[in-house]
Write a structure and sequence with these properties.
The protein is built from 16 helices and eleven strands. By secondary structure, it is of the alpha/beta class. The mean pLDDT is 83.
């Protein structure tokens, strides 16, 4: 699942206000309200700040105290549930996404309840950005940017404001859904950040990170980075904004560098011109922005799925057959992932089966194997398969009808070993780490009791302390 709680980082959501004030040395009075969370719920927390901040700026203390009291009463964000979240006389209604939500479609829109007064403000998503608005100046390069994200390439986004840099970085990260983005990213990075020296040094290769910045000084300090995207002020006119041009990194010379994607990278896949035509036609016909975003999101989703499906199919073929998993033997191992075997399989089971785009798919996979995203994907899939293997082995043991017969010619050491292994599997299953049915857990517990009951009293006392 691409949308997950961040264990190592916090997200900061900011509502910034700047007003003219001649009494202040800089001529402006500036104030911000910041919400910090481990949850990547961009849409929800931006909506929340837009409600709280105007009131907070006029009455700071009582406002925040009342809001915090209301938020304390909110239910936990359980995946798959629709929540009604009251705050400052308004009810925000949101659907918390889950693994079972079909990625082909937008998350189901929450249904408002007639008995709720006032009527709830329905947010169509807690986390999804308006992709079309974010990508307007770079639509002609969306696929190139998708490839750079897929490969975990270091990228700097230089934008005119923190809001634009943050949204563009988050939009780029979301390009890979449902594949989890496994690299570091900073929606708004400044010269005051602790990693500034690490990211700007020329003595080592740039790390796999996407940086959003606003200070033109970064053009000078990050000239050694392989990919720099500079965008100008966003324009909301009916026509498609001027598209940034593809330029060589050597063109980065001055701080007033014009908007463009400065990279020597050559895309592996051909550009989807039909998509650009459809988006342009949608602009001319003044189609709603959410319709344009849905079209763009579907394209990126289908592109990612076409790339990942062959990997999923090959990975599934490495799983031992269920008939080879027997009760009283150690389960067989998952076979190793062999890149050459996978690449050979693409001829008859490659992305060309689900994607019309032509290009060097093999070259893209070869580079993907070296990226943090392949490592992250493989580790997660291998872990899930190992858990499935453990679950199938537990089921095989619980379905065996001859445990007493098995115990007859076994030493006490072997019997105790079975008890310990069954208990370990039971703990994993009860912690929802193994996908097994409740009936299987009950049979496993019964087996443990049966096996312990066959042992001498002193061993029973060790295995079942009072």
């Amino acid at each position: 699942m691409s949308l997950q709680r961040e264990p190592a980082h916090y997200f900061g959501y900011v509502y910034f206000r700047q007003v003219k004030d001649s009494s202040v040395k800089r001529g402006y009075f500036q104030k911000s309200l910041v919400l910090v969370s481990r949850l990547p719920f961009v849409r929800l927390f931006q909506a929340l700040l837009s409600l709280i901040a105007p009131e907070y700026f006029s009455k700071p203390a009582p406002c925040l105290e009342a809001v915090c009291s209301e938020i304390d009463e909110w239910p936990a964000p359980v995946p798959g549930q629709t929540l009604n979240l009251p705050v400052m006389g308004v009810v925000l209604q949101v659907h918390i996404p889950s693994r079972v939500d079909k990625p082909e479609y937008s998350p189901p829109k929450p249904c408002s309840h007639e008995n709720l007064l006032p009527a709830p403000v329905i947010l169509s998503s807690v986390h999804e950005l308006d992709l079309f608005r974010c990508f307007q100046p770079v639509l002609t390069h969306v696929q190139t940017l998708w490839e750079l994200m897929l490969l975990g390439e270091p990228l700097v986004v230089l934008a005119p404001s923190p809001a634009v840099s943050s949204e563009l970085v988050l939009a780029l990260i979301s390009c890979l859904q449902p594949l989890k983005f496994c690299c570091d990213y900073r929606p708004y990075f400044t010269i005051h950040d602790s990693e500034f020296k690490e990211f700007t040094t020329r003595t080592q290769a740039p790390p796999n990170v996407v940086l959003g910045v606003t200070n033109p000084f970064f053009i000078k300090t990050l000239q050694h980075w392989p990919h720099i995207l500079r965008v100008g002020e966003p324009k909301m006119a009916g026509d498609l904004p001027k598209q940034v041009k593809l330029k060589k990194p050597s063109r980065l010379k001055t701080l007033d560098t014009k908007p463009g994607l400065y990279t020597a990278y050559s895309a592996h896949l051909h550009r989807d011109k039909a998509l650009l035509k459809r988006l342009l036609k949608g602009l001319q016909k003044k189609k709603p922005w959410d319709t344009q975003t849905a079209l763009l999101r579907r394209h990126l989703l289908e592109l990612t799925q076409s790339f990942i499906i062959p990997l999923e199919h090959y990975m599934a073929s490495l799983m031992p057959l269920q008939k080879n998993i027997t009760a009283w033997k150690t389960p067989p191992q998952i076979r190793p992932f062999r890149q050459d075997d996978f690449l050979r399989s693409l001829e008859h089971a490659g992305p060309q089966l689900t994607c019309i785009l032509k290009g060097d798919w093999l070259g893209l996979y070869r580079r993907f194997f070296k990226s943090p995203h392949f490592d992250g994907w493989y580790r997660q899939r291998h872990k899930e398969m190992a858990q499935k293997l453990e679950a199938l082995h537990l089921e095989a043991i619980c379905e065996a009808q001859n445990i007493e017969t098995w115990m007859k010619d076994k030493s006490e050491v072997e019997v105790v070993d079975l008890v310990l292994k069954l208990r370990e599997k039971l703990v994993q299953a009860q912690g929802h780490q193994l996908p097994v049915k409740e009936a299987t857990l009950q049979r496993a517990q019964l087996y443990i009791e049966t096996v312990i009951g066959s042992l001498p009293k002193d061993l029973q006392a060790v295995l079942c302390p009072p």
